[in-house]
Design goal:
The protein has 95 residues and is an alpha+beta fold. The chain has a single domain, classed as YaeB-like fold (2-Layer Sandwich), CATH 3.30.2310.20. The chain has two helices and five strands. The chain has a five-stranded mixed beta sheet with strand order 1-5-4-3-2. Helix 1 packs antiparallel against helix 2. The longest helix is centred in the first third of the chain and has 17 residues. It is globular, with a radius of gyration of 13 Å. The two termini are 20 Å apart. InterPro entries: RelE/ParE_toxin (IPR007712), RelE/ParE_toxin_dom_sf (IPR035093), TA_system_RelE-like_toxin (IPR051803).
């Protein structure tokens, strides 16, 4: 299955990477590379992540990487919808 990133998810990824890089640029680069490696796996293992607790809909899933939730939907393709810090609440506009 194809993995597609939404513009919002890419923006959130950039924001998080900049935040991490402010303290440790090397760690930020490693985190971004790890995140892309994990999301690439979704193409062959779409149910790898757990259901998003707030939604209780099997079509919306998430994987946790460090302190961040990578939220994606499963249909005819995998769509990475957003990236949220674990302490931030998910808003419906992000879906």
């Amino acid at each position: 299955m194809k993995v597609v990133w939404s513009p919002l998810a890419l923006q959130k990824l950039g924001d998080a990477a900049e935040f991490i890089a402010a303290d440790n640029p090397v760690a930020a680069k490693k985190w971004v590379n790890h995140l892309f490696d994990k999301t690439d796996l979704l193409g062959s293992m779409p149910e790898m992540g757990r259901m998003v607790p707030e939604l209780l809909d099997a079509n919306y899933r998430e994987i946790i990487i460090g302190h961040y939730r990578i939220i994606y939907s499963v249909s005819h393709e995998i769509k990475v919808l957003t990236i949220r810090h674990c302490r931030q609440q998910l808003s419906e506009q992000e879906l």
